[in-house]
UniProtKB/TrEMBL annotation:
Transmembrane segments: none annotated. It comes from Antarctobacter heliothermus. GO terms for biological process: translation. One of its GO terms (molecular function) is large ribosomal subunit rRNA binding. Belongs to the universal ribosomal protein uL11 family. NCBIfam families: L11_bact. Part of the ribosomal stalk of the 50S ribosomal subunit. Interacts with L10 and the large rRNA to form the base of the stalk. L10 forms an elongated spine to which L12 dimers bind in a sequential fashion forming a multimeric L10(L12)X complex. Forms part of the ribosomal stalk which helps the ribosome interact with GTP-bound translation factors. SUPFAM superfamilies: Ribosomal L11/L12e N-terminal domain, Ribosomal protein L11, C-terminal domain. This is Large ribosomal subunit protein uL11.
Amino acid sequence: MAKKLAGKMKLQIPAGKANPSPPVGPALGQRGINIMEFCKAFNAKTQDMEPGAPCPTEIVYYQDKSFTMNIKTPPASYYLKKAAGLKPVGKRNRPKGAVTPGRETVATVTVAQVREIALAKMKDLSANDVEAAMQIILGSARSMGIEVKG
């Protein structure tokens, strides 16, 4: 007999750093998911990724309290900020893009770096080839105020 679906949820968790504290613990606990089991499974699956990289995770949970998770690659903005070498600023100590993209340029990246990001994100993008994936990444860079130089 197939498992009965109870629901789905999405969380963005740093790779290798899932723990029962907020926001992960309460989000899972109120849905009846075993928090420690999830944290151990998530950390094991993300141990080969860069520690602390934000991982969008889709969790499907069932009525028998079991779950499955689909971990995606970090957002394009994370890779672009890293490639551009943007330094952390602000209250949360995170790197930021331009306040007014299109008028302000905060950093530059090369086409080779954009290609590398597109290859890393290829499985999560709705692109058929690397060139189309590069266009998606270029759009993200443009909206962040990051200039791409040939």
